[in-house]
Amino acid sequence: MAVTEGTTGADAHTRAQWSPARIYLVVSGVFLLVVAFAGFAINQNFAIGPDYLDGHDASAHVFGVLETNGWHSLAGLVSGVVALGFALRPEWARTGALLKGVFYVAVTSAIALWGPETFWIASNAADQVVHATLGVTGLAAGLLTKPRG
């Protein structure tokens, strides 16, 4: 990154480290951790099997909108930690954003094609909007971030 007039080398270096990919990873990681902890607070059900959705307390809604159960919260927790792990190193950010983007596009597609009960998670349309948004923004942030050479 070229240093412009009135900008010190340290300022330019700091700006270069906060790429779109790294910002995406921090924002999505914090969001996923908040949703995961809220999900665990209201529902810790890890039921499995074809009729788990019929059971009592099989799922609940985080913030009254996002359907969740223990599996969904665990997935959010792991995904949030992975995002923050990639964000720790600027040189990993682009790869992390692209991987998470591909992952969430795959999740969105899989749930749309086969339904959430196939994967032991509770999910509704609002969750699908979140998954799709995480996928598209992850891919966009990764593609907007220049590869480190």
Q: Strand percentage, roughly? A: under 5%
> The biggest beta sheet, please?
2 strands, antiparallel
If helices are DSSP runs of H or I spanning 4 or more residues, what is the number of helices?
Answer: 5
By secondary-structure content and strand pairing, the structural class works out as mainly alpha
Segments where pLDDT lies below 50 for 5+ residues? 1-7
Taken from the alpha-carbon principal axes, the silhouette is: globular
The end-to-end distance, rounded to whole angstroms, is 12 Å
The total of beta strands comes to 2
What fraction, in percent, of the residue positions are helical? 55-70%
Spatial ordering of strands, largest sheet: 1-2
Order of helices and strands: HHEEHHH
Mean pLDDT: 84
**Rg calc:** 18 Å
Would you give an account of this structure?
There is one protein chain. The protein has 149 residues and is mainly alpha-helical. Helices cover 64% and strands 4% of the residues. The protein has helices spanning 9-17, 20-42, 70-87, 90-114, 125-144, and strands at residues 60-62, 66-68. Helix 2 packs across helix 4 (90-114) and helix 4 (90-114) runs antiparallel to helix 5 (125-144). Mean pLDDT is 84; it is low at 1-7.
